[in-house]
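Readers of this paper often ask what the protein records in our data store actually look like. Such a record has a labelled line for the sequence and another for the backbone structure tokens. The tokens are whole numbers drawn from a learned vocabulary of local backbone shapes. We quote a single record here, exactly as it is kept in our systems:
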Amino acid sequence: MSLENRTYKLVLRKTARGMVIQFRSATPEKRESTLIRMGGSKAEEVFNTMIEVLKKYDYILEEGGTPNYRAFKLKPEIGPVVGGYLVLIRRSRDPEKWLPYFEGFIKEDPYKGAHALLTHALSLALALSGAYPPPERVRMQLNPKVVDSISAGFKTAVKKLWGVRK
């Protein structure tokens, strides 16, 4: 699946189980769907930090919000990078430990090639999820097992390339 000609949205929703980050995407032919879901006790902190950095570099537009739902449309050039970052940290035990690196990944300083690496993480997750579709009960388009395995591999790449210690 191609990442071109897609729109991207970052959403924070309150559910019965707590706050959940949703990374959504749509193509001209298909309606919007959730690619990645990430919950947990730190979901709101992760979301707020990401939004703060993306606003700083003018990569987002606010779409709407209520106390239970906040949505931001991402510019097309940064959408796959944000999706790749969520793939990277999705199964982390302490996702807030990855937050200090987010701004460096977005501006690629000092992490040269971060955009390419993170975009490839999302692209690989999309391609493999086509071959291994998620179970019907899963409410995201990407297979969680695929995303988890890609996350583990790309964490190793990030650690080796840039000396990130997590």
